[in-house]
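FAQ: What does the model actually see?

It sees only this:
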Amino acid sequence: MIIGRRFAFCLGAALYALPQAQAAVFSAAGANAAAIQTKVDQFRAALGANNGSGPSATGGRREINWDGVPAANSDPNLMPANQFQNRGALFSGASGFMVSSTDFSSINPAYAGQFQEFSSPKLFTGIGSRSYDITFVIPGTNTPTTITSFGAVFTDIEITNSTIFQFFDENLANMGQFGVPVSGDGGLSFLGLTFPGQQISRVRIFQGTHALSANNVDGPSVDIVVLDDIIYDEPFNANAGLGNVPEPSTTALLGTGVALLALVRKRLA
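And it is asked to produce this:
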């Protein structure tokens, strides 16, 4: 457990050294759905009515709970990255995506019974990577767009800052990273953020400390986490200036380069 605490401290220091955009935060964690329900409902109310899979709207919210994904696109099969294009969300940044009603036991039998659902029966994960991206389009189209609010429910977060959101604005500037609260073994965590007057073009999710695999199980420095519901406001800004966002490794290298440049300037001053 000492190793895990050191990991959490170092990661937390790296996270909060980054600048963060001003956001309204909705956060809760606990042993079951009741522990987070109030905050989830408050976040929903702040965004407005649920537009479901309907056509593009001028307000309201979208939700994805995975439960309607057909068997052909569920564990052990992969889910298409554009499965929820009709709700304005596209997935990328991992080798594949999977939803499961059996705790991803096809990946590792040890996961059976590890994860709790917020909305039963299915959960979601990226494959081959602990990070993946969600970008936004006008629902039912390929037109890139933006949102202003995003939230998600996770299960089984046991290490502080093992699971985080990183936001990019319409100009691809980093809006900061935000840690999802710890729930404890098998519990549920929720984090929702709204950025009034700002635009989010991409959400990068770092889910747990390690990707799900046949070799990775929970331990002192390993936190295996999966995702349940995601909630975001109606994707709406068709004129957003969007482009490519650096991959996670590139982002880290850029941060290191900036720090080194600042050190050199200080020494030369």
